[in-house]
Amino acid sequence: MPRPVESAVEWLNTQIHRLLESMRDRSAGVTKKFQQKIREWVETLVEEVAHGGAGMKAGLEALRAALTGKNPVWAAIKGLVSGLSGKAKIALILLLVLGVLLGPVLLVVLLLALLAMVIVAAVRSAAG
């Protein structure tokens, strides 16, 4: 079963080649050299999309989701994670776990700081 990114790249490649064929049929003034240059650019673009990094995959997934009426943010996140290397995925998981574990501690520290600010403001207003 082809991956969604590969099928999107294949569809993009097919559509661009159809466009080029249509352009060739309709305009006799387009030279062969110009057509070859366009094909090279298209192949370069398709290659970048096919073998692009996590950011490229995230963008493609977001675009696909937006075109199908789904949530592009969630699709971009899933595309980003699927494009990460194994080490990067492990680092992301560790950061999320660390955030979940330290989140309550940071919240308590923030609440204590706000409480201290309220006490200082109350003392200043009572003294002043």
Describe the structure.
Keywords: Membrane, Transmembrane, Transmembrane helix. The chain crosses the membrane at residues 90-123. This protein is mostly helical. The protein has a domain at 86-128. It is 87% helix and 0% strand. The protein has five helices and no strands. The longest helix is centred in the C-terminal third of the chain and has 42 residues, at 86-127. The termini are far apart. The model has no long low-confidence stretch (mean pLDDT 79).
How many beta-strand elements?
Answer: 0
Question: Kindly state the mean pLDDT as a whole number?
Answer: 79
Tell me the span between the first and last alpha carbons: 75 Å
| Helix and strand composition category | mainly alpha
- Order of SSEs, N→C? HHHHH
Give the CA-based shape.
Answer: elongated
Low-confidence stretches: none
Q: How many H/I helices?
A: 5
What portion of the residues fall into strands of 2 or more residues? under 5%
Sheet with the most strands?
Answer: none
* Percent helix range: over 70%
| Radius of gyration over all CA atoms, rounded | 26 Å
